[in-house]
Amino acid sequence: MTPDELLTTTRTVRRRLDLERPVPRELIEDCVRIALQAPSGSNRQTWQWLVVTDPDQRAAIGAVYKKACEAYLESQGAAGKLFADDPERSKVQQRVHDSVAYLADRMGDVPVLVLPCLKVAGGRLPSGNQGGLWGSLLPAAWSFCLAARDRGLGTAWTTLHLTYESEVAEILDLPDDVYQSVLLPTAYYTGDGFKPAPRQPVSEVLHWNRW
């Protein structure tokens, strides 16, 4: 794929993750190796990566995720409840809503769960600006998704589990100074390709010099 194709066709995969086919360890390690080339503030590289393949641990995380997802799907901010006054966009939102519910029922069955984490000096997140901290991890997490896409793997970017972050931390035996960012279920992709998603025109979101 060209860089433009990779960047415009890496989509969230929920329904078309192969739950039966194992993902080789070296393939995940390759994706993490590429992810580690992402920017890191002051070159601190305070990221840590947990890759969960153990069936019992995956099932435990899946149960926590399902609990969080059920609350989300009932909330007013759930995907299927957005843009209800726009029939065309509402159809898209409902498909997203249904796919979120689908993955919630199967999160524990996804063969690989990847959790990029941040190790914080002193053990506590600062009360002020945290942009530099998370900005030194989230680009790497997205690079992982791009590398996975290039290797025939699908991923989904989700943070719903953070509603119960401490429960997941206990499952993973995380130290107190390590914070989770995003959960990336990862598996072989069972579809036949992606295309760019509908997005707002650049003219509606781009501002030059002033608002």
Automatic annotation (TrEMBL):
Q: Which family does it belong to?
A: Belongs to the nitroreductase family.
Query: Where does the signal sequence lie?
Result: none
In Swiss-Prot or TrEMBL terms, this protein is called: Nitroreductase family protein
PANTHER family per record? NAD(P)H NITROREDUCTASE YDGI-RELATED, NADH DEHYDROGENASE_NAD(P)H NITROREDUCTASE XCC3605-RELATED
Q: Tell me where in this chain the Nitroreductase domain is found.
A: 9-182
Keywords, A to Z?
A: Oxidoreductase
